[in-house]
Predict the structure.
Amino acid sequence: MPDLRELYQEVILDHTKNPRNFRALADATAKAVGNNPLCGDRVTVYLKMEGDRIVDASFEGQGCAISKSSASLMTEAVKGHTRAEAEALYDKFHEMITGEPEGSVDSKALGKLAVFQGVSEFPLRVKCASLAWHTLRSALESKEGVVTLE
Amino acid sequence: MAHAAKVLLNVPDIKKDFPILHRKMRDKPLTYLDSTATSQKPQQVIDAVVDFYSRYNANVHRAIYELGEEATRAYEGARERIAEFIGAKDPMEIAFTKSTTESLNLVAYGYGLKGKRLQEGDEILGTVLEHHSNHVPWHFVRDLKGVSLKYVDVDDEGHLRMEQYDDLITKRTKIVTVAHVSNVLGTISDVKEIAKRAHEVGAVCVVDAAQSVPHMPVDVRALDCDFFAFSGHKMLGPTGIGILYGKKEMLEITEPLLGGGEMISEVHLGSAKWNDVPYKFEGGTPNIAGVIGLGAAVDYLAKLGMPAVRQHEMELTAYALKELAAVEGLRTYGPKSVAERGGVVSFTMEKAHPHDIASILDVEGVCIRSGHHCAQPLMDRYDLAATARASFYVYNDVEDVDRLVAALQKVNEVFG
């Protein structure tokens, strides 16, 4: 039976209540907006790129605990990494949240992001966890637009 | 409950009729509080559908053989009972569609778009509390006809601001449309008064009754509305069956949405004459099993008695509003008086987003809805991204409310 503590781990609750990098980035070089029309969640991701490297990342918006904490942890995780590294991280993250609940997790690569493994037991919440990441990808592609998760 | 002695509905007996309520949800008893989205089905309805397919499945209005005649009798018999259920004068005022949405689109297309009743510069008057299905079809009409759309606002408690009809209804108003009961706030609209105001300027009144017909006695003749749309699946019936009631003379001047078999009286190469009302709206083989199942649902509700259903929901809503008020950080929306609202309660919590509330309740076996409830303009009006929503029906009782409240305490524990 799915366990609530698996979904709402301490780290997730902490990032919900005290989101990190929760601000607009004045010197952003890329930004994108993501929408989840199902629940009204909306997130803006800001990036400051130097060449191929993300030197700063932040977000704004409103959403549930899962989407907000996911955005918060994501901005921490991608800072200092290259575009390709961020993409690879997203692939691993997505694999985890859509995979088997008991499946193995590359915790070395994912670090704190491993706390989202519990989401895999709640398939309807996968979109919440991945909204910020989809938006990040769009910002990396420098499509200044709105991403909508259908 | 203080007045538990006054049993309006025998809920324990009613629960026995609904097989789904006996399953476990995530190892907990299923507490279903999302009947505003769709209702559960009693065995009587399930049996009626199975009986049709098992014993007398045939197409309607076509077959010469007895089997087809049986199917047609059951189909038309259901139409008669549905007409009676809402107080229609004539079963021929009942057209079957697939949903409330299709019924409203049929009116928008067949009355609003086709023909010359609406001219450029005319006006359609809606409200901000409509479901998307009573917004978007009118956008189509505006785009193609060059009419303008106006909206009556709600006050902070969720009542329509009736005084706005004084200014917003003009000589150019051709259609006035309103939800009988809001699917978010539960607000009951004064349809009778709104229809009267529409008729004063020669406009027609179109009612989205998806949330009223399942829950309260309705009499379309007393309301004097011109079109009245509702769905089978929200009133214990099968999915995929919608109803459009229209005054006979209104249906006569409404054009069909679907061309095809059944809806014609004669067809030649390049031309056709429509069948009579309501058959001209029922092109293609209809949802026969759905109609027969809906007939059984209407019988079930009629036996309970709609005044008792309404009374039961009022008492349950009053109890829920009282209990919810005691949950820390919880805020409810909509009219405070249960006499002015249906059995639907939207709420938000200070510490938790509606989506998180719904997930935590899910683990406790409690099904509620979270989101914008297909009413984004109303959400915008109150500057809300989403709410959580619990709704009640004939099979719910105070124990369901108690389980809801206990689960909400868990939400506060998690996010405490």
Notes: The mean pLDDT of chain A is 89. The interface with chain B takes residues 1-4, 7-8, 13, 16, 38-42, 62-66, 68, 122, 124-125, 128 of chain A (CB under 8 Å). The radius of gyration of chain A is 14 Å. The first strand of chain A starts at residue 30 and ends at 36.
